[in-house]
């Protein structure tokens, strides 16, 4: 693979050492390099005297840009990962109560836990200080069987309880984590013994209270003790609290009089603790744990506590709990990140598979640079991703962010200094006026569109290509693969790897291909999402109210892609609608396709559908009928179907989604879209803003 190393101001960096596993090379006089990588990609690290190092995911045929920050000896690289736990499905993947098939066989085996983190360890190790939110207690007996009666050691009324094994703290330290935040709604899942075992377990691994762990204790005072740690002559104070207190239960989740637990959010406590840490000369990083699960926008409570922390002197506020990618907010001096998603977590809800690692560079108490490095959760752990997938994560975060943010080669950069080298270009374009779909190209964001004429939408699927896009996984990540469904190369020019279903007449059952989980519909103007927004913060709390009162809307989606069928093949493409994240479907939309000629050419596919009113999720299924189930002369002995470039676009209700979040556009006559493209001075020309997808 090839790449280029440049400085923060865009100038080329010669002589940077580049490593890709065991391979080594250096950048040339213009900053360019070439290094061998395996087909599945590798972590690419760049280092050079006088600069902070950087690590990015690199893949064959995908040019990589590595922008490096000057280091004067007092520039500190801070890094923040999303939510972490290693319990529940790590022990029991199919939740049948049997742990023999677990990813973790021995909760005390450090090597087993370290191996789980190997996919992201090179990224975590690059910073001076790396912090994560650990969202589970530590226990010698961490498995809680959801199928059996709840034992006395677990919280009696909490809906979800889980724990991680005693090897997790040491594994996190080995992978490069320096500070753990414990102020969250799961640290009391195993009651008082769980609080003690968690504090002590992390302390044994070097995460000493008041130095490398914060947010949990045997009293409110203990839970509010900051973790203060030094780096390059500077001091950093980490504090946090949770808005999800569980006070509606007989036993709350937080510390209180005569009771241990997580630090409960309180306006006075937050203000005083941040102000005291700031007055001591430390750079303060605060964490608010709260909001709505799977909600990308911050709740009112989270916004309020974030504002209190910033006003009291916090330089960074890095929040958690929604488990999905949120945006960032820059006020010219302090930065807030609303939600980073997950780093190591066992959730199976599709939006939780997008995530990012936040990097912030601080020099003498001031933020001089911030950027996010996208990752994907596959097999419950974060992994590096190719730039096309990374761009989808970046667009999600960037479209929700406030400030001078710039998308660049799959990353999202904060233009802290509003540098003169930043190039911004506005373009007004007219999409095809016959309803064809166009894709917004990387580097561009829609800013406005003709109301009532242009539809804006976002791709819920975001992994509809089948190349080697995820480090350590191989092609076709997040899609099911088996004897009859696999990823293969296609002989059509420029096609690359595709998803194939095969079936012969020896098996009457159809071959079925699908994604690894159903996809949540996300239109916030619908009661569908409100039902998923649990009352996380306090009884009666609801999602952000609608900007304009209107009846609940039906989601509108388009499935677009390309299909190639062998002669005689019959393929059903099905959208299954679900009323919850679990359970059977409540309806289907089906399109039947037939192969007319032997190994016919690639044909465009498009299915437009309205979701049932009760739908909260949708599944994409391809079902290839067996020749044994067909009738008629000339039925082949074997049939196949190939899929590629799939998109599942949810079209937004007008006013429900900021235009900048859109990945796709369709228009009636007279429509136009105004887009903004930006770069930080690398000299490359921006591509055309819209790319037609076909019929």
Automatic annotation (TrEMBL):
Coiled-coil stretches: none
Composition-biased stretches (Pro residues): 686-695
Domain Capsule synthesis protein CapA residues, every copy: 77-347
SMART domains noted in UniProt: PGA_cap
SUPFAM superfamilies associated with the record: Carboxypeptidase regulatory domain-like (SSF49464), Metallo-dependent phosphatases (SSF56300)
Annotated spans, Disordered: 425-444, 659-695
Domain of life: Bacteria
InterPro entries: Capsule_synth_CapA, CarboxyPept-like_regulatory, CW_Biosynth-Accessory, Metallo-depent_PP-like
Protein family: Belongs to the CapA family.
Name of the protein in question: Capsule synthesis protein CapA domain-containing protein
Natural source organism: Actinomycetospora straminea
